[in-house]
Amino acid sequence: MPAHVASQRVSEPPRLAETNMQNINFKTLTITSLVAGFFLIPLHELGHVVCDWITGHPAAMSYARDYLLSGGKTPFLGLLGGPLFPLILSAVSVILIYRGIHLSVFYPLAVLGTLDRLLLYLSGSTPSDERELAQAIDWPVSAFKHIFLAAEIFLLALVLLSLIRYKAGIKRSVLIFVIPLASFVICASFGVFVVDRFLFPVQHRIEFGLNPPHSCAIELRAPSAKTWIIATNGDRRPSRSRLPLTTEPFPGPREG
Question: How many CB atoms lie within 10 A of CB 233?
Fold first, then answer.
């Protein structure tokens, strides 16, 4: 065989017969979508926590919330890690898709990695991570939203081009997007409203603003009486008692 013919065959991409949609197992794709859909939000929070620790700020996380153990402000890199981790997952998956490796696994991972923020962006909102990133370096509030949105659209475009390359057809292409999306909605809802609520109740209440105020309350106490009167900022009724005031904080739920 001539040398130039052998060289040409070595440089050719994998044959479509070996990497086309017939190799996709939709059962595997569905299972991968369900598992990855459940862990997509924790992956986002893990990105925050890992980058917090890298910058010397110990942090922890629940299913749907990260927080610094010191209670301070999240550093710039910690804010960046949350949106960045799912994008890295998607980018690596796209590379492996173009290499024709385990399409049933990496197609849903590629799609789900872009859904972490895309649904929020399309709703017109700017999530808090993106706002705080922009404020940290004095950029326009929506600057990071547009950066991440451009990256997600680029990755989705590469996924679509790969479907054309592998001659997926309309039906298979739709399923490759719909199954991960539906899995994410179902599994993330279960994670947030069941797992997070019952396994991490304190963080869940903080996330949804359900904690009662505990820093603005005072106690009124009579030295010789057993009766306690609790007053908060919301109670502006004049008191007829001359009971001495104490500044002991009202006991509230402990964080994390």
Answer: 10
Residue 71 included in any domain: yes
Long-range contacts at 84-88 (CB < 8 A, ≥ 24 apart): 84/47, 84/51, 85/43, 85/44, 85/46, 85/47, 85/50, 86/40, 86/43, 86/44, 86/47, 86/112, 86/113, 86/114, 86/116, 86/117, 87/113, 87/114, 87/116, 87/148, 87/151, 87/152, 87/155, 88/113
Q: How many domains does the chain have?
A: 2
Indicate whether 90 belongs to any domain.
yes
Q: Answer left, alpha or beta for residue 138, where phi above 0 means left and psi between -120 and 50 means alpha.
A: left
For 87-109, the pLDDT digits (tens) are: 999 999 999 999 999 999 999 99
Query: Measured in whole angstroms, how far is the alpha carbon of residue 217 from the centre of its chain?
Result: 34
**Where is average pLDDT lowest: 63-67, 147-151, 206-210?**
206-210
